[in-house]
Amino acid sequence: MAMSHLNLLRPVLCRFLPSVVRTPLVTSSRVPSLPHSSCPVLLPNYVRHYATKKSKAKAKGQTAKVNINAALVEDIISLEEVKEDMAAVLTTLKEDFSRNLSIRTSPGALDHITVTTKDGKFPLNQLGQISMKSPQLLVVNMTGFPEAMTAVTRALQDSSMGLNPEVEGTIIRVPVPKVTREHRENLVKLAKQFSNKAKDSLRRVRTGAVTRVKKSKESVSEDTIHLVEKQIQQMADNYAADIDKQLATKTKELLG
């Protein structure tokens, strides 16, 4: 009688058994086992997903950004002043690029040259009148300060522009080098030197700021110190990226 009832329940059991996970602990000797051929049991398909190398590298490269309210840490350090100092480094780099790495000839190309005299240091355009006779020739009239002729000539020679001035009385003739491929490549090397110099200045600003923050460790929690340092590093990284962008743009401009 029990076997006939079990035969009636077989379709129902076959329908629901695949979704049930059974263990030997619930097996009873009083219940007859079902034939395997009449009721196949389907095992669940478990799939384990592994992180790929690409996803791991992406996760590793991502760092949580910090955005501290400057007013809350002004007793420790002025983040606005740090930002201004870093911005000044980038501004100086742009000025260096504009003054020293221009392919086009103009009278203003010599304005940035500093002349050292016995009376101090002066911009070249304050000692002599600069004019352009042709795209390949600049002229410096030293009638106003003839005693500075030697100093001006030396300053032109020592500049990073590869100039070979020629003295004629109180007139200094400055032939402008032709824009050759070699000249362009030399300007690119000079641009890299300026960008490296800017990054050195940026590191000094960051180091100085971090040093000031660490001096407050006795009155501020370590977590706060860590967050401020991370904010400063994040600011430095952003300006370093800007320096790289300026270099890439200038390199493309110089090489044509």
From TrEMBL:
SUPFAM superfamilies (UniProt xref): Ribosome recycling factor, RRF
Q: Which residues form the signal peptide?
A: none
Tell me, what is an example of a GO biological process annotation in this record? translation
Under Gene3D superfamilies, the record lists: 3.30.1360.40, Ribosome-recycling factor
Would you say which domain of life the source belongs to? Eukaryota
List the InterPro entries.
Answer: Ribosome_recyc_fac (IPR002661), Ribosome_recyc_fac_dom (IPR023584), RRF_sf (IPR036191)
Concerning Pfam families, the annotation shows:
RRF
Keywords for this protein: Cytoplasm, Mitochondrion, Protein biosynthesis, Transit peptide
* One GO MF term: ribosomal large subunit binding
UniProt similarity note: Belongs to the RRF family.
From the Swiss-Prot or TrEMBL record, give the protein name. Answer: Ribosome-recycling factor, mitochondrial
